[in-house]
Amino acid sequence: MIYLIFFVLICFIILIMFANKKQRKSLWNRHVVITGGSSGIGKAIAILAAQDGAHVSILARNVEKLDDAFREIKKYIVTEDQIITRVPVDVSCLEAVENNLLEIEETIAPIFMLVNCAGFAACGRLEDLTERDIKSLVDVNLLGTIYSTKALIGRFKKRREGIIVMTSSVVGLMGMFGYSAYSACKFGLRGLAESLIMELKPYNVSVTLALPPDTDTPGFENENKSKPLETKLMSEAGGLHKSETVAKQILEDALRGHLFSYVGFESFILTTLCIGMSPFSSIIELIIQFILLGPLRLIGAFYIKQFENIVLKCFKNPNIQEKKD
Ligand SMILES: NC(=O)c1ccc[n+]([C@@H]2O[C@H](COP(=O)([O-])OP(=O)(O)OC[C@H]3O[C@@H](n4cnc5c(N)ncnc54)[C@H](OP(=O)(O)O)[C@@H]3O)[C@@H](O)[C@H]2O)c1
Q1: 227 tagged catalytic
Q2: Range of the domain at 77
Q3: pLDDT below 50 — which residues of the chain?
Q4: CA-to-CA distance for 155 and 318, rounded, in angstroms?
Q5: Three-state SS at 89
Q6: Is 148 marked active-site?
């Protein structure tokens, strides 16, 4: 019986993949802007865009990291005409973001794709986060994306083309122990993405919400320093993904105009389960979601139960942390 359910599930996944196959847009000679392009997932996307023949502008705060990334990305250009630029800017300042984006539009080329990747996670129980932690989480992860998008959206609409990527997270679809403030920001991006999709429908501008799983990046390494044991135990099951794999999937989904970009079977289950009032791209996709939602709720319940057990186990055995260390 279990094999039959598994077989039917695999058939549905294959069907979804075909149902979702939209034409892939080209980046050749196009201008791609990536906030947070000096490190991790953002830098991996910048390299792929350079390999696809795009002009690439990366935005971040630290000038040294920007310089290093600039030199690395340059190695991947495929024509001498390609322009790679680095812009030191803090995305949590609207005025600075607007000025810098308008300047690179005028000096390099009209921007075709905006990838909002600047962000970071600070883990911990809510009562242990400082006011500064909470404010900077909101400023960078949520406001940073709103500001960069707001700065360009009018131009995209006028030109009747454009692609916007927002980097949320798996915890942008489900809450998880230790991610309270971060998760709130990443949930916010979903509301932003889905509202914008409605606003942009007539203008040929697409929005993709990326939901990366745990990905091996400097940011993730940093995040691990403050991660409670409960969070570590819950994340262990999902494994760690390479930034190149995640970047490739994000770029592929964005260029095909998909709303969600996810990696791996568990993220597929979660995304389908949380589909709610999200727009659908075809009737086949809608039917598949309609059929799968019930059975997936049971699989989801199994995960939730496991997470609850982890929380209770750690609560009842406070020494477990020391043993683990
Ligand atoms: N890695 C994961 O497991 C994972 C999972 C889910 C979602 N994500 C999300 O994916 C995105 C990228 O994460 P990552 O792991 O690749 O992180 P990362 O390696 O730390 O890279 C983050 C990038 O954002 C830039 N940045 C941070 N704050 C900024 C600010 N205020 N203004 C402008 N740039 C800023 C950083 O440069 P500067 O510090 O120099 O500014 C850096 O270029 C984030 O939004 C993160 O929340 C990551």
Answers
A1: no
A2: 23-324
A3: none
A4: 55
A5: coil
A6: no
